[in-house]
Amino acid sequence: MRILSGIKPSGTIHIGNYLGMIRPMVESQEKGELFCFVANMHSLTTVFDGKKMAQYTNEAILDLLALGIDPEKSVFWVQSDVPEVAELTWYLNNITPIGLLERCHAYKDAIAKNIPANNGLFSYPVLMAADILAYQSTVVPVGRDQKQHIEVARDLAIKFNNTYGNVFHIPDAQIRDEIAVIPGTDGQKMSKSYGNTIEIFGPEKAIRKKIMSIVTDPTPVEAPKDPDKSIIFSIYKPFASEEKISLMAKRFKEGGYGYGEAKKELFSVLWEYFSPFRKKREELVSNPDAVKEIREKGAQKAREAVIPTLEKVRKLVGVNNSFC
Length: 324
Ligand code: ADP
Ligand code: TRP
Prior knowledge:
- The protein is mainly alpha-helical and about 325 residues long.
- The protein has two domains: about 1-180 and about 290-315, 3-Layer(aba) Sandwich (Rossmann fold); about 200-275, Tyrosyl-Transfer RNA Synthetase, CATH 1.10.240.10.
- The chain has helices at about 15-30, 40-45, 50-65, 85-95, 100, 105-110, 120, 125-135, 145-165, 205-210, 230-235, 240-255, 260-285, 290-315; strands spanning about 1-5, 35-40, 75-80, 140, 170-175.
- The chain has a three-stranded parallel β-sheet with strand order 1-2-3.
- The longest helix is centred in the C-terminal third of the chain and has 30 residues, at about 290-315.
- Bound molecules: adenosine-5'-diphosphate (ADP) and tryptophan (TRP).
- The site of tryptophan (TRP) has 12 residues, from strand 1, helix 8 and strand 4.
């Protein structure tokens, strides 16, 4: 089983990204051969500042390594370090019906919101298909929002195989439905776009402030409260031990337990949970040569994985000189 997953670098990651995407990916290192990459070329569809782009990419590398991606167990690289994927994108572009891309949500949403759409955004799913197919991935774990893109990758694999000859494995999506959506500080889904996130690697003071700003109802301290209606408790559950979860639930129900106290307890559990990761990240930051080496070695391994497929593809589409 070859599991492939890409993460678009976009600045600061939050605990929702960690629970929904990064933690399951780290766990999948034990289940099969994990190919994990920083999808910086996908970010180019919306980031138009080269310095920012490079910074986001570096942050994503540090975040993923700190949070448990192990370059000894997995292949870990940056998308643009494997230029063969851009090459494959072009071959796939030529068998991609315009109508297939016009039906894709990301493009349709941009048009509906009057956001000026560029060709990169329009053909985003083709680049994603190239990522998946170049590595002959068997399983692609994604959030529900990416399901349609995996269907495009499957369609293009089938069409290419039928047009030129059998070369691509048909990948399967693995939709992470079982993972609950974690609420943000205002109770909506935690998301960068809502400004309600709790960051993983921010300064202590800023994280504490975010947690203290979690929205609560006006129930007085003495009154019993329903833990399942509390945002604090929802964020607490995925990170605290069973024992601590039961204790907080009990305190809520008994009354005499204020939201302020619960927030302090949440901060303390989160701070402790991420403390080893923070330490690891600091080590990485202070050792840029080691990080550079990880990036270079990862790129080399990733390129080795795609070259046999690209050689076959070039021959099939007739762009190498083997028939001259
Ligand atoms: P954002 O909404 O902050 O822009 P993204 O859309 O970049 O985050 O999310 C990347 C991935 O992180 C998603 O596919 C999803 O798996 C996960 N994710 C984001 N927010 C949450 C959340 N609140 N709860 C659970 N998973 C989340
Ligand atoms: N489009 C994905 C996202 O926004 C990131 C991504 C790029 C990806 N290429 C991929 C995910 C290939 C899985 C497989 O989250």
